[in-house]
Design goal:
The protein is of the alpha/beta class. It has one domain: Rossmann fold, CATH 3.40.50. Strand 1 and strand 2 form a beta hairpin. The radius of gyration is 19 Å and the shape is globular. The termini are far apart.
Length: about 350
């Protein structure tokens, strides 16, 4: 039976993903609504980019449902301030995604508690402005911050995720992955984007990398207790547009006011994918409006060959910062021999 199309525009169809439970939620649902009745007591979560926008709302709702949450930011002081505004158990950590030494230090700080990580929400993001190309160690900055930084973080935290009874990796991408990325997909031969650079293409390429990384990660984790899924949170007026020029920011603000989501609605899909019991075995999917969809008609959202190449190239670019995760012996884990929890 054909899966019915959800919507289409500009020769793009969003088609309901087969064999994934449909949720009762949609574009107007909030993070609190999609987690109503969820008890995260005893769960440990990490949310990157926690100081404002959907990152803050995601952290707030996970903590409200009982999770112990680590929130990260480039500024430790801002992360601490954000955590102080939340009811529940939270802790701040410093994370500069463009500095892989910072990523390693952050991961080691999180791992120091020896508590298994149940939820990792890769939410932090960068959006440049003015079409001024910026490089980090010879690689275009969007690709470094939005993809490679989280790539290293996931690698460094994977051991702790594998020890969870059901670990979840949630990658906040964007529909820019299929609307804004270069037509040919990720340009592995020019990751500096020296040719035909625009901020929108660079951002779109980095968001496509988010989706493909999650897709390949799910394949690598097949047979484990960890899932990986990506999502588009919606069109939301957050601080990610802070680098855009004033006119563009005004236009984006007007667009989000007329047809965008609130922050509470924008965090809904992240929280749903992180928490829903319906998705305990769902992995390698892309979500919009709290439901898994396939994108047909354009882009490379489900390109397994490109996803595999991205993983290999990313490993080469970050090799000195990576570790080899070990899958636990679950007989030992369940006997309490491989890890201890914090009281």
């Amino acid at each position: 039976m054909a899966v019915p199309p959800i919507s289409g525009c500009e020769n793009v169809d969003r088609v309901a993903a087969a064999n994934v439970p449909r949720s009762p939620f949609g574009a107007d649902s909030t993070a609190e609504e999609v987690t109503a009745g969820v008890d995260l007591s005893g769960k440990f979560a990490v949310v990157t980019g926690c100081t404002s926008g959907i990152g803050f709302e995601t952290m707030r709702v996970l903590a409200k449902r009982g999770a112990n949450v680590v929130g990260t930011s480039r500024s430790l002081e801002k992360a601490e301030a954000a955590c102080s505004r939340i009811e529940g158990v939270t802790r701040a950590a410093q994370l500069e995604l463009s500095d892989f030494d910072s990523v390693v230090a952050c991961a080691e700080s999180i791992r120091s508690s020896t508590t298994p990580i149940d939820i990792l929400v890769c939410n932090a993001g960068y959006r440049g402005g003015g079409n001024e190309r910026r490089l980090v160690n010879g690689i275009e900055k969007h690709f470094v911050v939005n993809h490679l930084g989280h790539f290293v973080l996931v690698n460094r935290l994977l051991d702790s995720l594998l020890l969870a009874s059901q670990g979840r990796i949630v990658v906040v991408a964007s529909r820019a992955a299929y609307r804004g990325a270069p037509a040919a997909g990720i340009d592995f031969d020019d990751l500096a984007m020296a040719r035909n650079y625009t901020d929108s293409a660079a951002y779109g390429q980095s968001k496509l990398a988010n989706v493909l990384f999650s897709l390949q990660l799910a394949e690598m984790l097949r047979g484990s207790r960890v899932t990986s899924n990506s999502l588009h949170p919606g069109v939301i007026n957050t601080d990610i547009d802070r680098n855009l020029n004033p006119l563009t920011r005004f236009g984006f603000g007007l667009l989000t006011k007329l047809s965008g989501k609130t922050l509470e609605e924008g965090a809904a899909t992240s929280c749903y994918v992180a928490c829903s019991d319906l998705l305990s075995s769902t992995s390698g999917c892309y979500f919009e409006d709290c439901n898994a969809v396939n994108i047909r008609g354009t882009g490379h959202m489900h390109d397994s060959a490109m996803a595999e190449k991205l993983m290999l190239v990313s490993e080469e670019l970050t090799a000195k910062y990576l570790v080899e995760p070990e899958r636990p012996d679950w007989i030992e884990v369940e006997n309490g021999q491989q890890y201890k929890t914090d009281g």
